[in-house]
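Researcher: Re-running this chain for the archive, since the previous output was lost when a drive failed. Same request as before.
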Amino acid sequence: MRTPKNATMADDGRHDTMAGQARFRRSAGAGATALALFALTASAGTAESLTLAHGFNPNHYWSTQIIDPWMACVTEGTGGDYTFQNYPSGQIVKFAESIDAMHGGLTDVSTISVGYETTRLPLNGVSMLPDMGGTSVEMVGAYRHMLDENTVLKAEYTDNDVHPLIVSLLPVYQLVTRSGPITSLEGLRGKVIRSSGGALTLTVNTLGASATEMPSSDVYVAFQNGVVDGALSAISSIKPYHLEEVVKGVSTNGQFGSFATLLAMEMPTYEALPDDVQQVFDQCGLQVERDVAAYLDAENETLKEELSGMGIAVYEFPAEMQQAMLEAMAPVAEGFISRLSERGLPAQETYDAYRAALAE
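Model: Regenerated structure tokens:
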């Protein structure tokens, strides 16, 4: 089995290692400097060290392009009054344990993978449905709008005593195939397609293919041995897992959904911060959020060119197939709305508001 380069992926869009980290750090550093000038002078006093624990390894883009720049921005913006003890790689907090870990005092700040918190954050799953945006900038903008407008999405975090600081969604997942381009819905029928679970599994099945769930680390061998015909994947997952060696086709205009991850802080700890320090934490979060969304989209385009240069067919689905897929995937959203509505949750209103945010 091939070993992933610079990656420790458990699954989903949480685990793509990105190239060009030095270039991002330069831009993030500039953002941090600007925010430091913007920030009000933090309350004087003894420097306070907060704990930030999460599951991402130090080479993952969430570490190098989100967590590290945000910590640096906060420390600079507060004049060194607030620093962080960073515990990556699941040393003390696993991906699915973050909210409990914050409540239990293990960490002050952590990442929340929405797909792993469907019980606590059911309505926030709307962000990962198919046909809910294509670029990171577009999807993050809609999600941020929903949080800023104090909708039920924000209320779910508040009800769980956490304060969102940064939202990140990878550019929408695409179809990666072993045999080359698929140009009709009929061509998908009966194909075995790897999914990371949740809405993506439902999406694969509604398209007439057969979804199989497996860790990302197993996908290379599955392609190599013909166990799967394709996978729904972030384009940025291809090279870290050497999939360019075993695939022949990558779509670029699929609307298969994405995966949402947030950086969040335990609410009582956040509320105990002086107002000017809260402002620094939030503004640094917004700056990094915007920077990384733009970076991920630009990197996605670069990766498409690189893959094409390797002889892989990088292609768009024909308009007729695209429309047929959108119609076929409609039951995924309908099922989401129906299930949550039966629980007394305002699923239809949330779905409509999110789509309106995407259109802005």
